[in-house]
Amino acid sequence: MAIQIKTIDQLKLMRKAGLIVGQTLELMREAITPGITTNDLNQIAIKNLAANGAKSNFLNYHGFPAVICASVNDEIVHGIPNDRVINDGDIVSIDFGAIIEGWHGDAAFSIIAGTKNVDDQKLLDTCEESMWRGIAAGKSGAKLTDISYAIENYIHSQGKYGILREYGGHGIGSEMHQEPHVLNFGAAGMGPEIKPGMALAIEPMITRGSPKTKVLSDEWTVVSQDGTRGAHFEHSYAIAPDEKPFVLTAIDGGAAKLAQFGIEISTLLS
């Protein structure tokens, strides 16, 4: 399937969806404290989707039963919200998406509830920074795997972390998951050229140990085989018609973080 190229009007609808995603994730981030349940977080997301007239792209996706993925500690991705109580020091990873007029947004973050273990916080910081370096590398004219290389290179520079091999980023637009698949590892300089109108969800997933995972009996929750804790960060970004990037799911469009790499975001989607 060909990579979908969006018009500026379509990207503007994706920005609307992305803002709802970003704002909803912030509400959940503020709510994640010891004692809350993952289903409580799902309810926050349900209410904010309704308040903004948006639809969920997670609910009923291949049968998924919630509007967020909530993964705790050794659960890396695709955890199903339930009555599990978040404990002090838990790593909580939230993945969430929204649809506006048929156009999708998708983003994720990890956070430590309460007391922060230094090694766990470095895991999160490494994962998040690798995402931003991947986005920065994915400029107009770059090759797709320039993103992959930037992510892997940074993660390996920070320590012995496991980069999940079976899961990665993806194109996004009129569907949540589109071509191309974006690996979080590999050599630079390969794959399709990144062009204006393309939108990609960049999402590194790493563990403090082995990259090997398994899926639990619920057929969704992905956990590390060795029981080590994991982190997951994601943003959806696009290349605007002016050939500048814009992070659709970041409240500021990615301006602050990308400025650290000397990159100016597009003003066409602000």
How are the secondary structure elements laid out?
Elements lengths: L7 H24 L6 H14 L16 E5 L2 E3 L13 E10 L2 E10 L5 H20 L6 H15 L3 E2 L5 E3 L6 E5 L16 E4 L2 E3 L5 E3 L6 E3 L5 E3 L2 E5 L5 E3 L7 H5 L11
Antiparallel strand pairs: 1-3, 2-11, 3-4, 5-9, 6-7, 6-8, 8-13, 9-12, 10-11, 13-14
What can you tell me about this protein's structure?
It contains five helices and 14 strands. It is of the alpha+beta class. The mean pLDDT is 98. A hairpin with a 6-residue loop joins strand 10 and strand 11. The chain has one domain (8-259): Alpha-Beta Complex (Creatine Amidinohydrolase). The longest helix is centred in the first third of the chain and has 24 residues, at 8-31. The strands form four sheets. The chain has a five-stranded antiparallel beta sheet.
Keywords:
270 residues; Creatine Amidinohydrolase; 14 strands; alpha+beta; 23% strand
Short description:
The chain is of the alpha+beta class and 270 residues long. It has helices at 8-31, 38-51, 118-137, 144-158, 255-259; strands at residues 68-72, 75-77, 91-100, 103-112, 162-163, 169-171, 178-182, 199-202, 205-207, 213-215, 222-224, 230-232, 235-239, 245-247.
Low-pLDDT ranges: none
Number of structural domains: 1
Question: So what's the CATH class?
Answer: Alpha Beta
Distance between the termini: 30 Å
Main β sheet profile? 5 strands, antiparallel
Radius of gyration: 17 Å
